[in-house]
Structure formats: structure tokens, C-alpha cells
Amino acid sequence: MGNYVTLVVAISTCLIGIITSIIAYSQMKIASAKVKLDLYERRFNVYVAALNNYKALYSNQLKKKQYAN
After folding, report:
1. Cα 11 from Cα 15, distance rounded (Å)
2. Distance, CA of 26 to CA of 8 (rounded, Å)
3. What's the per-residue H, E or C state across 27-69?
4. What are the record keywords, sorted (predicted)?
5. Could you read off the pLDDT tens digit of each residue along the chain, which spans 69 residues?
6. Which pTM was predicted?
């Protein structure tokens, strides 16, 4: 009977280790995706700011041309 208990404990330990590894791997993938998304959002905000500055500059140039004519 003692051998069966040892076998059950050993198998359950292995299963818990495998499940923990699967959870850790999935958490790693989720964290990696979050970092990529955060970096994309930062780059997109810089792009939007640059686009808004370009629009403002372009509209100012059009206004100057209209006043010049």
C-alpha cells in the first residue's frame, strides 16, 4: 500500500508541475502581447501628434496664401 501512495504522490507532483508550466507559459505570452500593444499605442500617439502638427502647419500656410492674394 505504501508503494501506491508514493506513486500517486509522484504522479500528482508531476501533473502539478506540468500545469504550472503551462500557466506560466501562457502568462508569458499574454505579457509579451501586452508590451507589444503598449508600444504600438505609444507609436500611434506620436503618429497622431505629428499628423495634427502637419495639419495645423498646412492650414496656416493656406491661410497665409489666402491673405496674400
Report:
1. 6
2. 27
3. HHHHHHHHHHHHHHHHHHHHHHHHHHHHHHHHHHHHHHHHHHC
4. Membrane, Transmembrane, Transmembrane helix
5. 778 999 999 999 999 999 999 999 999 999 999 999 999 999 999 999 999 999 988 887 767 766 665
6. 0.62
Which amino acid appears at position 53 of this protein? N
Structure-block grid coordinates of residue 9: 504522490
Location of C-alpha cell 508590451: 35
C-alpha cell at 49: 501628434
Query: CA 47, CA 14: separation in Å to the nearest integer?
Result: 50
- Whole-angstrom CA distances from 57 to 10, 53, 68 are 71, 6, 17
